[in-house]
Design brief:
The complex is a heterodimer of chains A (370) and B (62). Chain A has 370 residues and is α/β, with parallel strands linked by helices. Helices cover 42% and strands 16% of the residues of chain A. In chain A, helix 1 packs antiparallel against helix 7, helix 11 runs parallel beside helix 13 and helix 12 packs parallel to helix 14. With 62 residues, chain B is mainly alpha-helical. The N and C termini of chain B lie far apart (47 Å). Chains A and B meet through helix 2, helix 5, helix 6 and helix 7 of A and helix 1 and helix 2 of B.
């Protein structure tokens, strides 16, 4: 998705320059996804190009688009934790450390990483008015266009092969294959009770249920912590739709917080939208057993969303729960991870509108009580 | 809304000449040549500074 956003950013800059305009910055936060389609949302970034000016956003483009894509593709390092840790992106010096040696021969690394890192280091305490010097020496929009065309090729060649991950083959598990039919019937029936504006599918894996409810909603946000799975979902949605499903990489036990100045420049997940339906299918055991969060706290968080919920209870005896407890003593798993406690925590927060047993598991349709 | 201005980075600006292809290298060459040409000997620099001071004083008086 970052690659699609980078391509859009460069294409827009190219078009702007040919119209006598430029973009005064280059941040991925100016590009939002409507489903799988990147959309540039900051009209204020367009400004008149002043002859002789270099591309002011080049450094930012490198830090927030190019280096993250390069370290993912060439060093196999996930960029999400780095972008979440620093709103300004990855510094050239850090990118250089990760892309040394043989990786330096990959497209763009020598010029955009190594050369830039060196130039930044050398010029860090310079007081020269470089913009003025370049302008009087004849710098022009054509030079920016040459650089943009080169970067378009670099981005095109910077490809990450996601390969297999822990959860990329989840859909082929026996229990998934047998349970998906009845689960899908339940989920689509509940989702279809009324028109849904925004559905969140938390722990979406291959977004099977996001796709299943897509026709019943304006937008579906499919959240999963496995980057490889989400990348595949994005590729699939881009080619064959549905185009109102937005896949997001996010660990629900450690979701993106508010970022930037006073934590309000970039909003946390809960502040980005108000879902009218939340799907929490086969995810509770990951949060309570896997991430060791108290069951009551998870129920409380779900209730705080103020949404209808389709919730799947996965008991401790379930083979998938057993996988998560394989290296845990019983005392290391929350003692209240049982259906009786779940019902106690739901009581007062939700009305159980409907429930359905499913091979030892249980599906609930929950309506918030306040 | 948070409004901020970018730090374009001096080094990042300069390398855009190189990344602009042959025409960019020509810009870098012209820019470098100008910087060297603009460097004056200490006597020339002092004379220029004196002239500038005199000019400034004249402007204040007028």
């Amino acid at each position: 998705m970052l690659k699609a956003a980078a391509t859009l950013q460069l294409d827009l800059l190219e078009d702007a320059l040919t119209e006598g305009l430029t973009l005064k910055d280059a941040t991925p936060y100016n590009i939002q996804f409507v489903g799988d389609r990147p959309v540039f949302v900051d009209v204020g970034s367009f400004t008149t190009y002043r002859p002789g000016e270099p591309w002011i956003g080049y450094r930012q483009f490198c830090r927030q688009f190019l280096y993250p894509l390069m370290v993912r593709a060439h060093a196999d390092v996930p960029f999400q934790p780095m972008l979440r840790g620093s709103l300004d992106g990855i510094p050239a010096e850090t990118a250089r450390s990760l892309l040394k040696g043989r990786r330096a021969t990959r497209p763009g690394v020598a010029m955009d990483v190594m050369l830039q890192s060196r130039a930044e280091r050398t010029m860090s305490d310079s007081s020269r008015n470089v913009r003025s010097e370049m302008s009087s020496a004849g710098f022009s929009a054509e030079l920016i266009l040459t650089n943009v065309h080169r970067l378009q090729k670099v981005i095109e060649k910077t490809t990450w092969d996601s390969g297999e991950s822990t959860w990329s083959e989840y859909a082929t598990c026996d229990h998934v294959a047998t349970q998906r039919g009845p689960k899908e019937t339940f989920v689509t029936r509940i989702a279809g009770l009324k028109h849904r504006t925004l559905v969140w599918d938390l722990g979406a894996n291959d977004a099977h249920f996001s796709v299943a409810v897509a026709a019943l909603a304006d937008t579906v946000v499919a959240v999963d912590g496995d980057e490889a799975v989400v990348d595949r979902v994005f590729q699939s949605l881009s080619t064959s739709g549905p185009h109102n499903v937005l896949p997001l990489v996010m660990d629900l036990a450690d979701p993106s917080p508010g970022l930037g100045w006073r934590g309000v420049e970039r909003r946390r997940l809960e502040d980005r939208g108000q879902p009218d339906l939340v799907l929490m299918l086969a995810v509770i055991h990951h949060l309570v057993i896997g991430a060791n969060l108290p069951l009551a706290a998870v129920v409380d968080w779900v209730a705080s969303l103020g949404s209808e919920v389709v919730f799947e209870w996965v008991p401790i005896e379930d083979p998938m729960s057993q996988r998560l407890t394989a290296n845990k003593r019983r005392s290391e798993v929350h003692a209240d991870y049982d259906e009786e406690s779940l019902r106690r925590y739901l009581d007062g927060r939700f009305e159980i509108k409907e429930e359905m047993p499913l091979e030892g598991r249980r599906l609930f349709h929950l309506i918030p009580t306040n | 809304m948070i409004l901020g201005y970018l730090d374009p980075g001096t080094g990042s600006l300069i390398i855009q000449t190189v990344l602009g292809g042959a025409a960019g290298v020509a810009v870098l060459f012209r820019s470098t040549r100008r910087r060297f040409a603009d460097r004056k000997s200490p006597v020339e620099a002092a004379t220029t500074e004196e002239s500038a001071s005199e000019l400034a004083e004249q402007e204040i008086e007028s």
